[in-house]
Amino acid sequence: MTKKSMGIHHITAVVGNPQENVDFYAGVLGLRLVKQTVNFDDPGTYHLYFGNEEAEPGTIITFFPWGDAYKGRIGDGQVGVTTYVVPPGALDFWENRLAGFDIPATKSERFGEQYLSFDDPHGLHLEIVARQDGRDSTWSFGVIGPDKAIKGFGGATLYSSNAEKTAELLETGMGLERVGEESDLIRFRSTSEIGNIIDLKKARSKAGKLGVGTVHHIAWRAKDNEDQLDWKRHIENFGLGVTPVQDRNYFNAIYFREYGDILFEIATDSPGFAIDEPQEALGEKLMLPQQYEQNRARLQQELEPIQVRVLD
């Protein structure tokens, strides 16, 4: 029986200055900063997580802020566009809000839906779509109430260096339903109500170059450790090399690069982000994995201080 992915767990990107990152995703977009930690492979760099109030899978975008890193190039082998979903009727609010911060945005339509497209301060391509699917956010920030707030991911647009093979993997390997084609895009849907729509660009472009303003990887959901190991065996049957399980504190992760050179991760829903700090205090202070706790004083001196600010 074909395994069926629940959809996106999280998306991780490389950005620049960490305070600019916080100001945009919390201050402008109204997401909750749910975790301040460090890059486990580069502890002198933050790993910042933003999501909904409960820090649920399907809402989490994470960042490695490398302030002095080189600029990347969005292209094949990457997530090209990250999509957020808001309640029906909220697009006008977001168009006006972005304009109020002098953020250029354009409207477009595909698959019968209206999209608002814009870039973050470091060049990541983002868009907002209004849909009924998925429960409304319970997080309020400044003038952004639950009736306007981002629910989580609407999905993503994948730029593949081999769209035909990526499409085959999404459908037969990941169990996504192929629901339509329009111009240069193939649309797939997962079983969840959020983080569930994947558009795959058919045409080739230049190869992407990892750096500031690009997505590092897209992570798909596994229910638990057992389900994740089942996914590992399943993906290996497609001839793709999958890493051993990596402990990321808040989830376990396995990684593989699919046929079109996009880095995929499969991450467990559990244990979640409240294992080391109370739910009501998520993201309020620096949380370190056990192996770096002895270096806390030094790391806090090296890491640029950040704060969540209301920017209305």
TrEMBL record:
Q: Which domain of life is it from?
A: Bacteria
CDD domains the UniProt entry points to:
PcpA_C_like, PcpA_N_like
Gene3D superfamilies (alphabetical): 2,3-Dihydroxybiphenyl 1,2-Dioxygenase, domain 1 (3.10.180.10)
Domain VOC intervals:
7-131, 152-269
> Which PROSITE patterns does this one have?
VOC (PS51819)
InterPro entries reported for this sequence = Extradiol_RC_dioxygenase, Glyas_Bleomycin-R_OHBP_Dase, Glyas_Fos-R_dOase_dom, VOC_core
PANTHER family on file: RING-CLEAVING DIOXYGENASE MHQE-RELATED
Task: Quote the protein name from its UniProt record.
Answer: Glyoxalase family protein
Source organism of the structure: Planomicrobium soli
What high-level taxonomic lineage is stated for the organism?
Bacteria, Bacillati, Bacillota, Bacilli, Bacillales
